[in-house]
Input
Amino acid sequence: MVNDFLPDDESRFTSDGNGGLHCADASFDGEQDVLLKGIFREIELYIRQTGDVADPVLNYQSAEALARIIDLNVADHGIAATEFAKLVQRYLQYSVRTGHKLFNNQLFSGFNAPAFAGDIITSLTNTSMYTFEVAPLATLIEQEMVRLMCRYVGFSQGDGIFLSGGSNANLVAMFTGRNRIAPAVKSKGVGGAPVLKAFVSEAAHYSFDTAANLLGIGSDNLVRVPSDACGRMIPGALEVAMTLALDRGEQPFFVGATGGTTLHGAFDPIDELADIAHRQGAWLHVDGSFGGSVVLSRHYRHFVQGSDRADSFGWTPHKLMNIPLICSALLVKEKGVLQRNLTDLDTDYLFHQGEQAEDLGKKSIQCGRHVDAVKLWFAWKYYGLDAYSRRIDHMMELAEYAAMLVATNPRLEILVPRQSFTVCFRYLPEAGADVNAFNLQLRDHLRKSGALMMNYGFIHEKLSLRIAITNAEMTRRDVDLLFDKLLTAAAELEDRRMQSC
Output
């Protein structure tokens, strides 16, 4: 019986006698009003605080401390609306403020009000993107966003689908390339296919390895092609690697170029790679998850010159376009190619005849799919095409300014020439200090103090701090503040080290 699942007669709900529930408290709607007002009051406060650079990026607590501060257990009885608002406040209090101007840790940052509104509205309407029937306007909006994005990339007759991030875009691109070169694999499996070889740069995203694993190609058959000193794939090295595969009787089928590597921010030479990939009949994909939005810029779109020659292009607006996660799309040059990936498009319990409109589920490997295109549409409608072009230019120019500050400070060292939106550098402590260990300590100190957040990686065994300029609301003053905080913290750590010696 349904009442077996109710805690006791103090519950707000009781059985209606027909297997359903009704609210025992006539003031439930009033409590819901209190609940929502309390939630949005906390949201407004959070947004205001996040926009204030004087406030910390993070109120750091260890995992053990957080578990003591927040009661994580779910009890038999619910909580009142006022207590729920406090719970929301606590969650926001101890979350990383990714909209803060000194949050440079990931390849996304900033707060985008119209896109945030789109996220709220799509959650409120709570639909899925598989059929026009259940998502009519959202379907038309996604189609319009795909058309617009294809236009920027250079796919005049292109198509595409929104999906769950750049990693998934890389997976579906490789999936599509595999199905083109070996279509029987869809029904027969990989056992009867030749050994398939995929090629990406040594600086490419790890998701390509996962994709090769998932598709049955095997991560050992993903060839990591050497990159130059700036992190760009070397075309000659790609040609050599593909020729060696052919000599062994293997089938090169996929080349993944990167439009903005995770650490260097490097852009592979797409035009040159296209010449090589097309000679071998391989699918050419551009992973523009990080830097793909550069196509919006009038001044820097040449970074992805040759994108129109690719077979697919991954573009993730939740990065440089500041759209709330997740917002990512895979664009393809050829209409119909995504539908051919799937094996059953006649599922009558979902796809029905009658509407003269496309059901987007017929070209997606996901069935249930969140409405992600609407928040992008809201932001693009609000800012306009010209403003987004200027935003991309502004971030590129700020990264150039940050690189100049590093280059002109004798205590800082650039570890790789700046390519685009990221700056890779390190602090040079006094002689005798372990430079890698010191920079890791510096980064950790800045994060735990809440002063700022930036990430790190290794470049030829040297630990590199990485600033990623991905927040279009930043100014030169914010970049100055970032370096002031970094240099102040480094001086304090050096003083402590000297005192302990």
About this structure: The mean pLDDT is 91. The chain has three domains: 2-97, 116-379, 385-500. The CA atoms of residues 179 and 341 lie 7 Å apart.
